[in-house]
Specification:
The protein has 538 residues and is of the alpha/beta class. The protein has 17 helices and 23 strands. The strands form 7 sheets. Strands 10-9-11-12-13-14 form a 6-stranded mixed beta sheet, with helices on both faces. The chain has a 4-stranded parallel beta sheet with strand order 4-3-5-6, sandwiched between helices. The protein has a 4-stranded antiparallel beta sheet with strand order 15-16-18-19.
């Protein structure tokens, strides 16, 4: 089992459009066949450049066709990409390139290219830097490599085939560095086998087919988005790039069938609906507000027969328009990368969105569990994937009973090999028999569904010795339409406190701005600053 099999599907439906947009702001379409040919050209040129199986190659870029092209070309010859976004600080990029021992690097734009060129003198072993530009005749660009690869394929195709045949499932595919907030970033080593197994298991569990259309908004270098992009590619589905400013517009216009996002985006979409209902005057506003209330009761499983009857009428008359704003074709909505607030989960399920709450980490390639298509109850993240085990364990290492909270440990074919060149950190989280300590607090119920309750390191210990998990408290606070953000504080204090950021638009509906004691812009600035300070001390 080797990574190039991802492209086999692309070659099987070469004429179909894979990317309707080359990037979020583009209208140029890319077919599966065009991508496969470009991967061949680039792979041939990379071999001539000296890139070999096992070499680490930096990929500092954002979502676009060229990101996927470079990623697939490197993988096809056994090179290991080390991806990162363009918003990464130069100091962190320098650490990542030096620590991973990158021999080459790709840069998204001129600014990033300039930063990498500056680093070449300080990072030993870093050779050529390639600007990911395909237009023009400039040397040292992706376009130049593609043109050279076209020439090489006339005579060197056997060399390319031999390089690809050497790639093994246990070879490293990528090293993804996790953000280092209190220490240096750690490089998660994922093999071809890790990712391919996760890809195919998720595809089967979520029933992904070539009829699907994906809307892509998360950074491609994050494993969460990366696995979704691979799902579209291998299944023969369509992948449409968007950005956060265009999500609502593209949901309505692109009309995707699959949309994966982090909890904050789902929360933003939820809050947009609630905010619209608050502002909508007259009978229409009253009906929408009542419909959302009923949706949360139904989605949360707390509705009696009368509620359900009213909700059915609301679905046909009022909520249909809400679903139309999401394009009307969504059959799979995925939330991952963090805890989905319970009230958001309940309301969106009640509205009729097929929301599947999932769980995983970069270290698990990334999916470990996901709510199954037939599961419509909120809060949990479903059972572990097939061939994956998740256990809640006590501090002494013994397994917790059903519904007992402990630290979640994960074992499966998608679990990382370890942290690159960091045996100490690897030993702290990975056992010799393959169990990975996620650091997340959670429980497994009697039905086998996993529930996340917080992060072990986020626990607040009050002066009286009480342990408080801040996330559930913050989630309850944010159910108020007047509260946009909340952060609990109180480590070593007598009582728990919270820093709150109001939802200013909703607040103004309740209290006219001319009654505020300070200017609205000043209040916003103070709120954001206070929240940042609070987070730094939690």
């Amino acid at each position: 089992m080797t990574f190039p099999t991802l492209l086999d599907g692309a070659r099987g439906h070469a004429e179909r459009v894979f990317l309707p947009r080359r990037r979020a702001q583009s209208t140029e379409a890319i077919t599966f066949g065009y991508l496969a040919e470009d991967v061949d050209r680039l792979a041939a040129a990379l071999l001539e450049l000296g890139v070999r199986r096992g070499d680490r190659v930096g990929l500092i870029a954002e979502n676009r066709y060229e990101w996927l092209l470079v990623d697939l070309a490197l993988a096809s010859i056994g090179a290991i990409d080390v991806p990162r976004g363009c918003d990464t600080t130069p100091a962190e990029i320098e650490f990542i390139l030096r620590h991973s021992g990158c021999r080459f690097a790709f840069a998204d734009d001129e600014r990033t290219f300039g930063e990498l060129e500056t680093l070449r003198g300080r990072v030993a072993g870093l050779g050529a830097t390639v600007l990911m530009q395909t237009e023009g005749e400039r040397d040292g660009t992706l376009g130049a490599l593609l043109r050279r690869g076209e020439e090489l394929l006339r005579t060197r195709r056997p060399d390319l085939a031999a390089a690809r045949a050497a790639v093994q499932a246990d070879d490293l595919l990528t090293i993804v560095y996790t953000s280092g907030t209190t220490s240096d970033p750690k490089g998660v080593m994922l093999t071809h086998g890790n990712v391919l197994n996760n890809l195919r298991t998720v595809r089967d569990v979520l029933h992904i087919t070539g009829d699907d259309s994906f809307l892509s908004v998360l950074p491609a270098w994050h494993m969460y988005e990366r696995i979704m992009d691979y799902l579209a590619l291998e299944s023969g589905a369509q992948l449409v790039y968007t950005d956060r400013r265009r999500i609502k517009e593209d949901l309505a216009n692109v009309r995707p069938t699959v949309f994966a996002a982090v909890p904050r985006i789902w929360e933003m979409l939820h809050d947009g609906i609630v905010g619209h209902a608050q502002k909508l005057p007259g009978l229409r506003g009253k009906l929408l507000r009542q419909s959302l209330h009923l949706s949360r009761l139904v989605g949360g499983g707390r509705a009696h027969l009368g509620h359900r009857a009213l909700h059915a009428a609301a679905r046909a008359i009022v909520l249909r328009k809400v679903l139309d704003a999401f394009g009307g074709r969504l059959r799979l909505c995925v939330s991952g990368g963090g805890a989905l607030p319970r009230h958001v989960d309940e309301t969106l399920l009640g509205i009729g969105l097929p929301l599947r709450n999932g769980y995983g980490l970069t270290e698990t390639s990334p999916v470990a569990a996901v709510r199954l298509p037939h599961q419509r109850d909120p809060g949990h993240i479903g059972p572990p994937l097939p061939d994956t085990a998740i256990e809640a364990r006590r501090d002494d290492g013994t397994c917790c009973g059903p519904d007992e909270v402990g630290v979640l440990w994960i074992r499966g074919p998608q679990v990382m090999r370890g942290y690159y060149e960091n045996a100490r950190k690897t030993g702290e989280v990975l056992t010799t028999d393959g169990w990975f300590n996620s650091g997340d607090l959670g429980r497994v119920d009697a039905r086998g569904n996993v529930w996340i309750t917080g992060r072990a390191k986020d626990t607040i210990v009050l002066a009286g010795g009480e342990n408080v998990e801040p996330e559930p408290v913050e989630t309850v606070i944010k159910t108020s339409p007047l509260i946009a953000q909340a952060v609990c504080v109180g480590q070593d204090q007598k009582a728990l406190g919270a820093l709150l950021v109001p939802d200013f638009d909703t607040l103004e509906l309740q209290v006219p701005k001319d009654q505020w004691q300070i200017d609205g812009d000043e209040l916003r600035g103070r709120a954001v600053q206070t929240l940042q300070i609070g987070r730094a001390h939690v």
